[in-house]
Amino acid sequence: MSFPHLIRSAIRSTSSKIALLARSTTPFTNRSFCSISESEKNSTTPSEASYYHLSGGPSHMRAAVFWEPGKPLTFEDFHMPRPKANEVLIKTKACGVCHSDLHVIKGELPFASPCVVGHEITGEVVEHGQLSDSKIIERFPVGSQVVGAFIMPCGSCSFCSKGQDDLCEDFFAYNRAKGTLYDGETRLFLRNSGKPVYMYSMGGLAEYCVVPAHALAVLPNSLPYTESAILGCAVFTAYGAMAHAAEVRPGDAIAVIGIGGVGSSCLQIARAFGASEIIAVDVQDEKLQKAKFLGATHCVNASKVDAVKTIKDITGGYGVDIAVEALGRPQTFLQCVQSVRDGGKAVMIGLTLSGAKGEVDINHLVRRQIKVIGSYGARARQDLPKLIKLAESGLFNLSAAVSRTCKFEDAPQAYKDLDQGTIAGRAVVEIM
Question: Which residues are in the Enoyl reductase (ER) domain (predicted)?
Fold first, then answer.
């Protein structure tokens, strides 16, 4: 049995596909509440009476807020976010710094604002929403360590019902389109005004965050909070591309174009799946040098040589079985398509400026049976436990993938450095 096959069969998801229950405004028995009036139940912005504090814990928290393009992230005080049915309140320990956040911050990807970014997190379970399914509470008891995936499946839509969590209808219709969770409301409200602030995924760049339970997996004590945060996006995205879109098999020749946080994770996943030739392509020698340690058998600096020609030279003139574009630029989109052999797969995972177009030679695509595949991420319920096993076994080196850690207060600077291209690999913000 092939190694990828062993990975795929290692863990079976036991999460039940249970529809999210209707929104409840009844006070939780283990928190301090004032009564909530009928008018407050129907209000998008809760009144002061509806806010609560954790038993023996704080009544508010801090989070980094994106206001609009061109303005820096600021730290603001929020009322403690309240989980609803089948949602979990997490005390955030670490949050990764991702290019997807940066696209939002720069205004390249339209998103509701103001919002809290940050979408790959680890943390500790603090509370469950009222009326949550008992199996969820048993799986994630209060005090347990968890990791959260950025694609947060509802568990009950047509795609989730077929196991295609990465295409969850509610995630795209509510979170990505409106910045809310799946009742159409955010969980974040400013302490000074009560005004709502939207959520990019769970809004993880915060001291506490609310996450739909289907997006979580238990993090074993053997894995550290900080480095494990990247499992929820960088590694998660790479795994989705390699396992589902590319369907990597042992012996495949692979090229990865763009060796950032996600691209470098693709190298490690390709190695774990038994790829024979793994070609890293970038324009920075520092990133390419690190790529060798992460599994690359060949490195190509596209600023010094013709990347497509060099890839074909390495593969005896044929091209690779699978090329992965992890940067999100029209130029690299074309390079990705041109780098694959006849019948090969070009997998696109890099996000870019909204509305950007990638060109392709139609006749070459048709005659040579080139497959161009988009891949946004993996499938939380099935795949996140597998990624944890990969990290536990050492087949995926988390420490090598994380190139920088910083304090919560330094998160705005980390995004500036990411924009300048000075972060090789992944940066992680340590929050608590």
Answer: 70-429
Count other C-beta atoms under 10 Å from residue 4's C-beta: 18
Estimate the crossing angle of helix 285-293 against helix 261-272, to 10 degrees: 30
Q: State both tokens at 239.
A: 């795994």
Give the global pTM: 0.86
Bridge partners (DSSP) listed for residue 63: 76, 206
Within 8 A by CB and 6+ apart from 110, the residues are 354
pLDDT-above-90 percentage for the chain: 81
Alpha carbons within 13 angstroms on the beta-carbon side of residue 305 total 14
**How far apart are the C-alpha atoms of 102 and 281, rounded to whole Å?**
22
What is the predicted pLDDT for the residue at 58?
Answer: 86
Residues 92 and 432: beta-carbon distance below 8 Å: yes
Give alpha helix (H) positions in 193-348: 225-228, 234-239, 261-272, 285-293, 307-314, 330-338
Angle at 126 between CA 122 and CA 129, to 5 degrees: 110
The predicted model gives 288-313 an average pLDDT of: 96
| Burial class of residue 173 (count of CB atoms within 10 Å of its CB; 0-12, 13-18, 19+) | middle
Classify burial at 35, counting beta carbons within 10 Å of its beta carbon; exposed 0-12, middle 13-18, buried 19 or more: exposed
Query: Helices 330-338 & 307-314, crossing angle to 10 degrees?
Result: 30
**What was the pLDDT predicted at 19?**
35
Q: Rounded to an integer, what distance in angstroms lies between the CA atom of residue 241 and that of residue 59? A: 41
